[in-house]
Write a structure and sequence with these properties.
With about 325 residues, the chain is α/β, with parallel strands linked by helices. The protein has 15 helices and 7 strands. Strands 1-4-5-6-7 form a 5-stranded mixed sheet, sandwiched between helices. A two-stranded parallel sheet has the order 2-3. α5 packs across α13 (about 285-300) and α7 (about 140-145) packs antiparallel against α15 (about 325-335). The longest helix has 16 residues, at about 285-300.
Length: about 325
């Protein structure tokens, strides 16, 4: 049992907040395996009920980053991922965006996990597509250079989180850890397009990334989805040039057609993999429109285009020209 956490628990139980350093120390204690399940659950729930602060997020991210297995990435690498937790069960959008970006020359160090809010997570659909998500960690930099994309499977890079796994499962509700995944990319990318399950967290997560050295990011939420949607308006919080800006975007701004969220409903890994492969082979419809919109946003974050319309046009060229499909085929070969 950690005696270090007892004073912290007493304070958060009274509704007090932690400084960045205090949060970092508390979460380092957890990830060192020095806290009991009761202490971990108590801290997580006290913070959840009161509401986690940016300082607490920053400290927890620092603790996680200090213990993660890092991956070297090319300059300009980007991450496209989401928090999960939207419970929408849609097709895999950010994974498809990864291949479009890679084909367009934007390196993507994609941080991901198994299914959380859908039936099929990033690792599930990639496995169904023939990609080895368990490639030796020391090979990942070479994979990223060759394929212009790599999948960084979160449990392998953040093994210290195993100490909190039991309490998290037993609590069965959202905790600070649900917010930390997209903030702790093992490649330490400085550009991110990140989906958020609840728009109320978009600004806090943006402020956290800003304090941790991020160059540019969009935190997005689209009508219940942890990604941009073509069903209507999406909320965006952007960090750029030392300032935070909030705005909304619509599919029309990218020259895209609207479609209901039900049109991108997903299924098991085989179903989602088939849809993703069909997309890369030229299939049209709501899935393509959604991927084009999110790729356009990622291209803005990567500094490749200035607006959504230009980004969507470039993304469509990548899909239609076969470069996105080629990126998948290269990733399959490099991870075999």
């Amino acid at each position: 049992m950690s005696t270090n956490l007892k004073p912290v628990l007493a304070r958060v139980a009274m509704g007090e907040t932690l400084s960045e350093d205090e949060s970092e120390a508390a979460f380092d204690t957890i990830m060192a395996g020095e806290a009991t399940p009761a202490q971990i659950a108590g801290l997580l729930m006290a913070m959840r009920v009161r509401g986690e602060t940016v300082a607490e997020l920053v400290g927890a991210v620092r603790a996680m980053r200090a213990r993660m297995v890092e991956v070297a990435a090319p300059d300009g690498a980007i991450d496209v991922c989401g928090t999960g937790g939207d419970n929408a069960g849609t097709l895999n959008v950010s994974t498809a965006v990864t291949f479009v970006l890679a084909g367009l020359g934007v390196p993507v160090a994609k941080h991901g996990n198994r299914a959380l809010s859908s039936r099929t997570g990033g690792s599930d659909v990639l496995t169904a597509l023939g990609v080895n998500v368990d490639v030796p960690l020391d090979r990942l930099p070479a994979v990223l250079r060759a394929a212009n994309c790599a999948f960084l499977f979160a449990p392998r890079h953040h093994a210290a989180l195993r100490h909190a796994a039991g309490p998290r499962v037993e609590l069965g509700t959202r905790t600070i850890f649900n917010l930390l995944g997209p903030l702790t990319n093992p490649a330490r990318v400085t550009r991110q397009l990140t989906g958020v399950f609840d728009p109320a967290w978009a600004r806090a997560m943006t402020e956290t990334l800003a304090r941790l050295g991020t160059t540019r990011c969009w935190l997005v939420h689209g009508m219940g989805l942890d990604e941009l949607t073509v069903a209507g308006e999406s909320h965006v919080v952007e960090w750029r040039d030392g300032a935070i800006r909030e705005f909304t975007v619509t599919p029309e701004e990218a020259g895209l057609r609207r479609a209901p969220i039900a049109d991108i409903q997903g299924g098991d890994p085989a179903v989602n993999a088939a849809a993703l492969l069909a997309l890369l082979q030229g299939a049209h419809g709501a899935y393509r429109e959604t991927v084009l919109l999110n790729t356009a946003a990622a291209l803005i974050v990567a500094g490749r285009v200035d607006d959504l319309r230009g980004g969507a046009t470039m993304a469509a060229q990548g899909l239609d020209g076969g470069s996105a499909l080629a990126a998948l085929e290269t990733l399959r070969r490099e991870t075999a």
